[in-house]
Amino acid sequence: MHHPYNRRTFIQLTGAAGIGLALPHIAKPQPVGDVPPGRRVGIIGLDTSHSPAFTKLLNEPNAALDLGGYRVVAAYPKGSPDIESSVSRVPGYTEEVKKLGVEIVSSIADLLTKVDVVLLETNDGRPHLEQALPVLKAGKRLFIDKPVAGTLADAIAIFEAAKRYNVPVFSSSSLRYMTTAQEIGQGKVVGKVLGAEAYSPAHLEKTHPDLFWYGIHGVETLYTVMGTGCRQVVRAHTDKTDVVVGTWADGRVGTFRGMRGGKSDYGGTVYGETGIAKMGPYEGYRPLLVQIIRFFDTGTPPVSPEETLEIYAFMEAADESKRRSGVPVTLESVMVKARSVAKAR
Fold first, then answer.
1. Predicted model pTM
2. Does the N-terminal peptide bond of residue 168 adopt cis geometry, omega within 30 degrees of 0?
3. Residue 169's beta-bridge partner residues?
4. How many CA atoms are closer than 13 Å to the CA of 64, on its beta-carbon side?
5. Domain of life of the organism in this record (predicted)?
6. Residue 53: how many CB atoms within 10 A of its CB?
7. pLDDT (tens digit, 0 to 9) for every residue of the chain, 345 residues total?
8. DSSP 3-state of 94
9. For residues 120 and 284, is the Cβ–Cβ distance under 8 A?
10. CA–CA distance from 61 to each of 14, 15, 146 (Å)?
11. Which residues does 317 contact at the CB level (< 8 Å), separation at least 6?
12. Which CATH class for the 175-283+312-335 domain?
């Protein structure tokens, strides 16, 4: 998601209330040669606020130990070719990361000669398959920011390629790592989750399935507490809101509400065996970055490919329900269709 860089947001992203916004006040980054072996990070795509935010956190000279000594050393800036909100950000974000000691390269091939692991940050999911393939072929662990791809078929193709090249891939919204959602999902707050409602902004981008672009945040929150096993969804929508009701195999019901009008936020309500709990507040990018670093260290994604693909099948089934005037649509039906498209490539 995109956040303007005011002081409040900067503090939220970094947890560093005492650090000013002016880049010249940041200490000069250590030379690239001082980066520990295996910890050189490359970024693909400088059209999202995630790129400078992650770079600030990793390249801060006094970065916390839970970030493992990883540093962003190189970036390939090109992101979306035609989404104006993305294209317009590239020049500014390129300058920001350059000031943090990052080398700007002209191709993904060049990037891969300089780094050990990769953050695929391109805001546009459509080029993700094309951008991910050379990273996987090079054997470098890969985090793919939301959305995984511009279609469910492409998302399947990415994970199939990861399996083929035996390279682990991880993708997640930062909303998964809200402390409250994590604790509820682990059974620490209300026991077994019997049902849940999650909400988030759900701005649309015409080049992507409706919920892929921004609704992913609330859907991922829903899955964090409900787990996998959704069988079918029904979607109701207006110009200002979406409501997607999913039925899980064990009879539980989980609901996502996406808001497109007025002020909206991130959170939800969870109904459990021992009580009712609220999810939130959103805690910024840092908790996700800690998980990414652990993934780079271990090679074990904290969210399985199967769960990530089910999340995207949930959103694709919601689109199909909309196209069919709100009838129930099974996740398996959209997966079968998408697998067929992916296999035909």
1. 0.89
2. no
3. 142
4. 12
5. Bacteria
6. 25
7. 444 334 333 334 444 333 333 333 333 444 444 888 899 999 999 999 999 999 999 999 888 899 999 999 999 999 889 999 899 999 999 999 999 999 999 999 999 999 999 999 999 999 999 999 999 999 999 999 999 999 999 999 999 999 999 999 999 999 999 999 999 999 999 999 999 999 999 999 999 999 999 999 999 999 999 999 999 999 999 989 999 999 999 999 999 999 997 778 999 999 999 999 999 999 999 999 999 999 999 999 999 999 999 999 999 999 999 999 999 999 999 999 999 999 887
8. helix
9. no
10. 13, 15, 28
11. 232, 233, 329, 330, 331, 333, 334
12. alpha beta
- What fold is seen in the domain 7-174? Rossmann fold (3.40.50)
Q: How many helices (H) and strands (E) does the chain have?
A: 13, 13
Domain-wise residue ranges, the chain: 7-174, 175-283+312-335
Size of the chain in residues: 345
- Single-letter amino acid code for the residue at 142: L
What secondary structure letter does DSSP report for 147?
S
CA separation for the pair 201, 338 (Å, rounded):
26
